[in-house]
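Re: [help] complex structure
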Amino acid sequence: MKAIGRPILGLMMLVGLTAGASLRAEDAPKNCDVPAYLLTSDSLLGRVASAVKAGGPLDILVVGSRSSTIPGAEGDAYPARLQDALREKLPGVTINVSVELAPRKTAAEMAAGLGQLVEAKKPTLVVWQTGTVDAIRSVDIDDFRGAVDAGVDALQKAGADVVLINMQYSPRTETMISPTSYIDNMRVVAQQHDVPLFDRFAIMHQWNESGEFDLFRAVHGVGLAKRVHDCLGRALSSFVTDTARINPADLRIQR
Amino acid sequence: MTPAGARSASTASIPVAGTERELRLDLFRGLALWLIFVDHLPPNLFTWMTIRNYGFSDATEIFIFISGYTAAFVYGRAMLDRGFVVATARILKRVWQIYVAHVFLFTIFLAEISYVASSFENPLYTEEMGILDFLKQPDVTIVQALLLKFRPVNMDVLPLYIVLMFFLPPILWLMQRKADLTLALSVALYALTWQFDLALPAYPHGVWYFNPFAWQLLFVFGAWCALGGAKRMSRILSSPVTLWICAAYLLFAFYTTLTWHVPQLNHYMPRIIEKWMYPIDKTNLDTLRFAHFLALAALTVRILPKDWPGLKSPWLRPLILCGQHSLEIFCIGVFLAFAGHFILAEAGGGAGIHFVISLSGIFIMSAAAWMFSWYKSVAGKGGSRSKPANGDADLAGGGA
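Output below.
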């Protein structure tokens, strides 16, 4: 349970609760606040930076499992929201986000095809979301690390920038799926390859703690999923521009 | 957590034993049980008091070490008094109890997730719900659970404990003859585990979360301390050099864990150390974790002498009682953690409710422990107890 929450936060929440802050309106517009440290990385997206400087095209390929989409509402899933947010932030730059879904595939099963995929599509940036299926099947942790390592290696060799995304924070399945060691190992691989890691788990955990979203409740429609994905897409867009060290303001002045 | 040091000569040696319980053992095992309970709940305010947030090792290390210690203490005496066969039979009876407890917890787990499967719906988590697929083939899953190969999250400690206890008779037999040799063999097995990746397979994939080949080191080390090792280490433990090394290491571990929670600090952690240190492997009892436990234990026995008057204080009584009925309280703790998840699911997970659940869980565990003690004393007085040695051993072997 690295990296989640802090004691001060807990205290604040306790105070907040007694103050009745939990009476938040369900459908109020979300401001998707994410603490800055979760949106920064020491690693740099060099190719994205130069693509944006050249005015595009910036082709982004999202490779992921089922949690990279919303069944029946693909256009509202975080990859599409990422595209919208980036286009809004970087007007004048051609931006395309495509998605390659591999449902029920472990990191090892995905890693095998990554090199070819990049050869074929030639994206500037590959966003690789993985870990969930491995955690569900409790794949051997060393095998998992090896697979992520091999996958990132193949992507970098094929000439793409890489962003890793870990699993969703899912409080309901906490007693059944143990994501911690998979998250840790993804962090290790990211560090070794100097690749930024978008900590979806910590971000969603943060939202759940702060009351932004109630991820514990059962809901029937796709409304909650859409709002969470919208926030994820926006957070991811900030993460990408930030790690590519792009300042949208500078860009506008140039043009 | 009382290896050695402060423990005075008299209790450390087996024969004299039986006179008085080592309350520090009970205290810390009780503490470990509370911490395990809190760690099994979704993260909340209480989680920040658990030791895994302040260093590498956590409650599991304490639990396994003390279990090794008390098991060797109790059954070692039985082996001396009544012989190898009788002691073995008693140990196996204990193994059976733990096994039944494990199956009991598994049943509760099944009930819980079956409920979640039929009542929880959220399109956001379509993928995560895949975990429930195993409900579709109960014929395989339940058999695998009985074989200890299928172990849901949070149910890894008891299978480890079962395996360790199962091999206790030969360990004890050898330890009573060649204590240091036994410990050396244990270290060798630990080293071989790391060298050759020894592991037990789990169902449907992967390996046991707590690798018994590695974790036996703590258990055997506990046994070794109980059978006189602690006494022999007391000189090392009381030296100021040890004190400073331990303190320095604990500080380092504390700082490292701090960087996990306050990522801004990460910049001050040299990359070379990071690469060498991570990942810290819980499955195979990383040496860093083991060392952290040793340092913690060494400091504790130093700070907390055996005859510390606080041990008799009513405030610590609930902890000590819990530690004296560890198996029962462990099971209740796991059960309460499940129940806590359930309540949070139904009532919505506010921090306030979280807090209340943690507190009442601890309260229920303590009350249950108190009841067990009360029953034990009443039953002990009432019946025509002809074999006090047995009764007492079982009580202490609660640890086991």
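DSSP finds 16 helices and no strands in chain B.
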